C-alpha cells in the first residue's frame, strides 16, 4: 500500500489524512509546520496527552471544547485550577473526562511556568530537541525517536506527566520539529519550505 493517496485536487497526500474529512485541513494547514508560540506548543502537548489510548479524530473533534474548558491553554490560568475546576471538567461532556489526564494538564501548566522562569521561553527550550537531518528515520516508519525519547525523559525529570516518548514524538511531528510528511506528499516540500523560512526561537534571557 502506497504512502500517499490523491487529495481532492488530485495532488498526493499522506494516506492517513484521507481517513476522515476533518483530517485534510489539519494535514494541509497545521501538521508538520513549525511552531514557535509557547501557548500553541503547550496546547498541543496537552492534547497529545489526552489522545493517549484514543484516536486523534476524537481529540480533533473536541479541540474547540478543550480550548474553552482550559481557557485557551493559558498556562497561568490553568495552573491556578482548583478542585472546583477539576469537578467542572469531569462534568464537561465536550472533552475527554479522564481525571488523570485533567490533573496532568494542571500539573504541566505549573511545570511550564517553572520552565519558563528558568529558561525564558518554552519554545526556545523545545526547539533545542529538534533532531539533525541525519538522525531522522524515513517518514512515518517509527513512533518514537532518539529525540522524542530525550525530550520525554527531560520533561519527566522536570515533573511533567503524560509525556511518554510516543506522545512526544507525535507532538514533534505535528509542531514541525520533524517533517514526517510522506515522500511524495504535496505538503512535504511546503513544510520543508516553512522550516527553512522559520526562525528558531531563542531565549531572551
TrEMBL record:
Cited Pfam families: Adenine_glyco (PF03352)
InterPro entries noted in UniProt: Adenine_glyco, DNA-3mA_glycosylase, DNA_glycosylase
Keywords: Metal-binding, Zinc
Gene Ontology molecular function: DNA-3-methyladenine glycosylase activity; metal ion binding
Protein's name in the database: DNA-3-methyladenine glycosylase I
Domain of life per record: Bacteria
Binding-site residues for Zn(2+), renumbered to this chain: 14, 27, 181, 185
Coiled coil: none
One GO BP annotation of this record: base-excision repair
